[in-house]
Amino acid sequence: MTQRIVLAYSGGLDTSVAIGWLAHATGAEIICVAGDVGQGGEDMEIIRQRALACGAVEAVVADMRDEFADEYCLPALQANALYMDTYPLVSSLSRPVIAKHLVQAAREFGADTVAHGCTGLGNDQVRFEVSIGALAPDLKILAPVRDSGMSRDKAIIFAEEKELPIETTRSNPYSIDQNVWGRAVETGFLEDIWNAPIEDLYSYTQNPDTPRDPDEVTIRFEAGVPVAIDGKQVSVLQAIEELNRRAGAQGIGRIDMVEDRVVGIKSREVYEAPGAMALITAHRELENVTLEREQARFKRQVGARWSELVYDGLWYSPLKQSLDAFIADTQRYVSGEIRMVLHGGRAVPTGRRSDASLYDYHLATYDAESTFDQSLAKGFVRLWGLNIKTAAARDQRLSGDKS
Question: Mind telling me which residue stretches traverse the membrane in this protein (predicted)?
């Protein structure tokens, strides 16, 4: 029986080059799997046909959009996940769901090997291989672009020589990855971190400096899940798509950062994530209203660690699964509505309401109807600072003792 290899196929330079390289190096039949994670742009059928034109014997498109939104983007939203307090894990979230479908395809087509088109410089090699190893430790893994030492310039030359039907050329050297949660752009002139991004880089967002009217939006959550926008019921996928459109039109979600990659290098990345950033802003604001203080403080620590694990390719790790359980428990009372104004590149909360709110007007008000007993505060403050006062007295006493 002819050997078969399942290749994660994006339709871009690296994976298109990988088809021919794998077939030549192994003699195997190459089966491409392309995932629709809401990236938009090209028709997925065109991408499937491109894989066949590049030498694949079979190419399948898996519709992962709702699965990706419900099982990957939603947990990130509930964690308020921002790697390095900035990046909403755009590419990081899509890799484990793609890996899951690669394993399923390998079983279906009788392949004993899975391949990807990642380079040795990036994070995705880790995310794919660790996820595949967690789901199917018996499968072998190949990384033709990385393992052949093929640079981007060499890949472009190979593509031109073979007349591969791909968009990446010498005049368009960017590496772009996108899904419904956001869009990532790297390489090219961006590798000089002094160079500012140009407007042509952006696709999901309009220029935030362009004059336009503000857009007011109200998002309703039930147990941490966005369920309605301006009173209209939505799925998680629809919520992201709607806010991609509306927040993107206001220039919200542009990110230009130098981040710490898994492999130990720093990398300059430009991201667009209008829907993700608007939803995280709203969700975090609702948690400010509904989560108890110590629970909220600890959840911020958990969210930061959760983000690091997902960024580092450890979606299927035991620790991440344990953190999932904690985060899910915190969402029991995260229900209510957040009103925001989208304008000038910012999503600004302007109203909050929830039946599960811990905000008590009568405790918070400074007016006469306040029910807060201020007479209790004097003793509370003395006890709260007693340990610090005692330590300060000790320091003062010993600093004056010269013997």
Answer: none
Is 359 annotated as a binding-site member?
Answer: no
For residues 15-34, b (16+ Cβ closer than 10 Å) or e, as one string?
bbbbbbbbbeebebbbbbbb
Token pair, residue 124, equals: 């995705």
166 C-beta neighbours (distance < 10 Å), count: 21
Task: For the chain, give the number of residues.
Answer: 403
Q: Judge whether 207 is annotated as a binding position.
A: no
Mean pLDDT, range 153-166, rounded to an integer:
76
Contact 174, 185 (CB under 8 A): yes
Say what the alpha-carbon torsion angle 383, 384, 386, 387 is, to the nearest 10 degrees.
140
Q: What pLDDT is recorded for position 400?
A: 75
To the question of whether residue 172 is assigned a binding role by annotation, the answer is no
> Judging by DSSP bridges, how do beta strands 266-272 and 336-343 pair with one another?
unpaired
Q: How do 113-115 and 140-142 pair as beta strands?
A: parallel
Chain segment 23-38, per-residue pLDDT in tens? 888 999 999 999 999 9
Question: Is 192 among the annotated ligand-binding positions?
Answer: no
Whether 10 has a binding-site annotation, put simply, is yes
Q: 230 among the known binding-site residues?
A: no
d(Cα 333, Cα 355) in Å, to the nearest integer? 9
Q: Where are the alpha helices (DSSP H) in 123-197?
A: 124-135, 144-147, 152-161
Q: Which residues, other chains included, contact 378 with Cβ-Cβ below 8 Å and sequence gap of 6+? A: none
Strands of 254-260's sheet in order across: 175-179, 182-186, 266-272, 254-260
Task: Please identify every residue annotated as catalytic.
Answer: 14, 95, 124, 175
Q: How confident is the model at residue 168 (pLDDT cuts 50, 70, 90)?
A: low
Residue 123 DSSP class: S
Contacts 24+ apart (CB under 8 A), 238-244: 239/275, 239/279, 240/38, 240/69, 240/73, 240/180, 240/181, 240/275, 240/276, 240/279, 241/38, 241/180, 241/275, 242/275, 243/217, 243/219, 243/274, 243/275, 243/278, 243/279, 244/180, 244/204, 244/274, 244/275
